[in-house]
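Researcher: I'd like a candidate sequence for this fold, 137 residues long. If you have to choose between options at a position, lean toward the conservative one.
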């Protein structure tokens, strides 16, 4: 069952919320998610998300994330493989690696690790930038 998250009409994403892990909940293992999912608790393991994964301000997540869009406002330690965008918000702390075509770090956000910028999976054509050499006269 999907529902609208309070205040979701302001984000305009049109995605359905499919669930959340609330503050005070601890989970260990693998999560496979569809739709938009929010984590505010403690998770250790692998997370596979088809749409948007949000790590709230109280989230403490350790492991590997494979997803489309990942928004981090809490703490994350591990490796992220994103097909779309990774956002580290003002209170977000990321330690590890990010593999994504787009990484956004808001002022106040912390990233300590390595970033690998990949070609977008939506891009079917490559872009060539011509470089002209100066001819010797």
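Model: Candidate sequence:
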């Amino acid at each position: 069952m999907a529902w609208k998250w309070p205040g979701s009409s302001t984000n305009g994403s049109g995605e359905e919320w499919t669930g959340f892990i609330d503050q005070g909940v601890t989970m260990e293992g693998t999560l496979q998610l569809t739709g938009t999912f929010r984590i505010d608790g403690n998770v250790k393991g692998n997370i596979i998300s088809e749409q948007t994964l949000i790590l709230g301000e109280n989230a403490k997540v350790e492991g590997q994330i494979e997803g489309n869009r990942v928004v981090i406002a809490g703490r994350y330690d591990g490796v992220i493989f994103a097909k779309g965008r990774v956002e580290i918000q003002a209170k977000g702390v990321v330690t590890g690696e990010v593999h994504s075509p787009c990484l956004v770090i808001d002022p106040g956000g912390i990233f300590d690790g390595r970033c690998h910028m990949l070609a977008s999976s939506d891009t079917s054509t490559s872009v060539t930038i011509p470089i002209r050499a100066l001819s010797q006269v």
